[in-house]
């Protein structure tokens, strides 16, 4: 076989036009059809690039000069945007970001899902009026520099921790508490964890804020279960921040990039903080998944509820239910809701949340959705509407198989990854479902992430 030589060479310069953006927010230029990924370039821009790395089917480049700017280009408002990497598209106007995200969803549904895009409605992305300071959770690594503690973020592509006073997408209360906790620990001579030597103590600080209630939780992730100067540290935190309701320690003694370990204990105050979304109140514990953008979460859940088209009597299954957020929204309009989730603590929270809101037409089970739902089906539980909200890897095939056997009239698919959404929609379409509408929601402004809710209906001929 003749080996095709890529049409570009390392260290050479090329004049290009950018056509697209990757999921990571890099510009895509094509040279004789060969894609080159160039950070900091936007679609419709032109410029001169230097090729920095050539792989078999694609290359990377650096933007040397911009000769034509996109109408959506702006200066990134954050001074540490380039070092941090937490946001990928701050150099694009917010309007431009929303258009990009809609296009990305359409492209992926067509390319990976092979959906008939003349039929599937992909709506404009529902964005935020004020797309800043939206995050209710800060989760920062802690390190040491010249003897003092630093808390912030890993500099892009390194494991060096940069101190961060302010993050523009974070609730400012969270930044304040993180910085204060760092200062308090510093004053007591507390040592940060050192990744290379696997020594030291404080690995991460997490702060969670119930924006509707004003309650806050502080979590110390530490290498060992002891807590030097515990009483003094706690006293200082609660004296400075009376809205802190819960202080928790999580022990992670492993040499790993995973943030949390298995052992969690309450050091002071409550095991939970509370927040409300719409009319429903939620208790949230340290280890449970809870959406980070509460304003947009309401938009997302309202859309999921709308797509469920409930009349009041239906049986609904909520797969990957977390602390029961979507389940409780659905329960207000359904006959009975069954929620399933793999994290036991989240299911405990879900049950507590149902009781807290006086909702008693829900049942929650711990386990894999792909194991529990097939068992429910064998026991005769059949959903009229089934909601899934899986993690990035999408639904397990065993779950999709069961959906195709169970044949709920409607499937509402909430997804944080358009790629796996597209893959799963293809499987459901092949099994007799029709994707009616897809509503992208901007849960993470300034990052390249996009969340979607899709409505699928069982093919009318089959279900009539
Ligand atoms: N619907 C919830 C949670 C969505 S996040 C909300 O909106 O808040 C996805 C959830 O799926 C997480 O809580 C995660 O713990 C859970 N999960 C991951 N794999 C799972 C599996 N195989 N079966 C059931 N739940 C799973």
From TrEMBL:
The residues that the entry says bind S-adenosyl-L-methionine are: 291, 320, 341, 389
Tell me the leader sequence span. none
Using the record's annotation, list all stretches that form the TRAM domain. Answer: 7-65
Catalytic residues, per the record, are: 416, 416 (nucleophile)
Top-level EC class as recorded in UniProt: transferase
Report the Pfam families cross-referenced here.
TRAM, tRNA_U5-meth_tr
Q: Which UniProt keywords apply?
A: 4Fe-4S, Iron, Iron-sulfur, Metal-binding, Methyltransferase, S-adenosyl-L-methionine, Transferase
Enumerate the GO terms in the molecular function aspect. 4 iron, 4 sulfur cluster binding; rRNA (uridine-C5-)-methyltransferase activity
InterPro entries per the UniProt record, alphabetical: MeTrfase_TrmA_AS, MeTrfase_TrmA_CS, NA-bd_OB-fold, SAM-dependent_MTases_sf, TRAM_dom, U5_MeTrfase_fam
Residues passing through the membrane, by range: none
Q: Name one GO biological process term.
A: rRNA base methylation
Enzyme Commission number(s) from the entry: 2.1.1.189
Keyword Methyltransferase among UniProt keywords: yes
Q: Which family does it belong to?
A: Belongs to the class I-like SAM-binding methyltransferase superfamily. RNA M5U methyltransferase family.
Instruction: Write the protein's name.
Output: 23S rRNA (Uracil-C(5))-methyltransferase RlmCD
């Amino acid at each position: 076989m003749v080996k095709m030589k890529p049409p570009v060479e390392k260290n050479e310069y090329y004049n290009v036009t950018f056509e697209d953006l990757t999921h990571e927010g890099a510009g895509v230029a094509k040279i004789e059809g060969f894609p080159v990924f160039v950070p900091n370039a936007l679609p419709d821009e032109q410029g001169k690039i230097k090729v920095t790395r050539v792989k078999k089917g694609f290359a990377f480049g650096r933007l040397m000069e911009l000769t034509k700017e996109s109408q959506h280009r702006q200066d990134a408002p954050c001074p540490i945007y380039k070092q941090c990497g937490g946001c990928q598209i701050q150099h694009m106007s917010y309007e431009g970001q929303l258009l990009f995200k809609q296009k990305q969803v359409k492209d992926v549904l067509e390319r990976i899902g092979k959906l008939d895009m003349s039929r599937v409605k992909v709506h404009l992305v529902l964005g935020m009026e004020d797309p800043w300071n939206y995050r209710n959770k800060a989760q920062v690594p802690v390190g040491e520099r010249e003897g003092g503690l630093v808390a912030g973020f890993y500099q892009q592509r390194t494991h060096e921790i940069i101190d961060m006073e302010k993050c523009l997408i974070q609730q400012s209360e969270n930044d304040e508490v993180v910085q204060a906790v760092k200062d308090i620990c510093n004053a007591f001579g507390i040592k940060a964890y050192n990744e290379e030597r696997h020594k030291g103590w404080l690995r991460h600080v997490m702060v969670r804020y119930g924006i509707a209630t004003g309650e806050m939780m502080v979590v110390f992730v530490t290498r060992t279960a002891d807590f030097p100067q515990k009483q003094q540290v706690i006293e200082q935190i609660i004296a400075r921040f009376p809205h802190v309701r819960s202080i928790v320690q999580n022990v992670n003694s492993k040499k790993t990039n995973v943030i949390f370990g298995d052992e969690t204990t309450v050091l002071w105050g409550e095991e939970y903080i509370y927040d409300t979304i719409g009319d429903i109140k939620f208790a949230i514990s340290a280890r449970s998944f809870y959406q980070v953008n509460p304003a947009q979460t309401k938009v997302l859940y309202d859309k999921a509820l709308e797509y469920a088209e409930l009349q009041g009597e239906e049986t609904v299954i909520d797969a990957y239910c977390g602390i029961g957020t979507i389940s409780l929204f659905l329960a207000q309009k359904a006959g009975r809701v069954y929620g399933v989730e793999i994290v036991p603590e989240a299911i405990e929270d879900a049950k507590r949340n149902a009781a807290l809101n006086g909702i008693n037409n829900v049942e929650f089970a711990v386990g894999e959705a792909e194991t529990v739902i097939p068992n429910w089906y064998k026991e005769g539980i059949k959903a009229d509407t089934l909601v899934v909200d899986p993690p990035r890897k999408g639904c397990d095939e065993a779950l999709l198989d069961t959906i195709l056997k169970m044949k709920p009239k409607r499937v509402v698919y909430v997804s944080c990854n358009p790629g796996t959404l597209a893959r799963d929609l293809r499987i459901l379409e092949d099994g007799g479902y029709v994707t009616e509408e897809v509503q992208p929601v901007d849960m993470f402004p300034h990052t390249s992430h996009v969340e979607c809710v899709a409505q699928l209906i069982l093919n009318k001929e089959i279900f009539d």
